[in-house]
Amino acid sequence: MKLLLIAATVLEMSQNGIDLKIEADRTQIDPGRSVFLTVTMRAPKDVRATLPDFRERARGFSLAEDGARKSARNADGSSVETVDWRLVPEPCADVYKIAPFAVSASPQLLSSAADEGSLSFVAGPVYFENPPPRETVTGGMESDPQKDLPPLSWRLVGWCAAALAAAAALLASAVALVRYVARRVKEHRMSPIERAWAELERLLRKGLPGRGRYKDFYVELTMVVRRYVQRKYGIKAPHLTTEEFFGEIGARGMESEELRRFLESADLVKFAGVQATPEMADGATDSARRYLEDDNVVR
Question: Which domain holds residue 226?
């Protein structure tokens, strides 16, 4: 570890011929940056001195580690020792400092045991400035934070378009269902003849003969008449064959030549394979109308 930039001298002193100097790259603490120190000590040639250890003396720092440089000797015989230190600040510490520390020194040639450590002395403390106070936060809590919108892309546009199309289809289906239910409820409240006229009008709007679907047209046309008979007279006409149907209405004295001709001619197209024409379809429609009108003549 080598200090690249020294900003200031934080301690410099001389005692007993020993010069001690501590330099730091900063004097004010930044919790996000380590503090780098360079400790230099020059001792006379006849003195043995030991550099101080800051590991137990650092206050407000979570780590203190050193890296010694190679010793040097001057022309006058004095020795120079240099150590680089790195101190890691603790966030929100009350104080940042290096507590007073001992510099151990003694003569090279000891005349007695009392001379050992006779040149030692205490140095420090070294203080660092606390971090500057943070700016005061003003204003209330943001109650409606704005969310970051995803970047616009063709894929996002495609997803949005698909979602809109699905929503539109769902809405159209819901509207159609509501209309269908409303129509069925309205028809359910109609009288049998009113309902028969409504079903006949709806069938004619389909235009089945114009599209060549004569068999489908005759099937639905006869069902309009059969459902009318069932609703008005309680005969399950839609479930009976033509012969069974006539036997049922004959037993009740409700025979109608108009109805017989209509159903028998319709059976020729539905079951006998007779090829219908537009004129035949119009005639069958007129026959069904006449039966419905005649059956509702007030007698």
Answer: 190-295
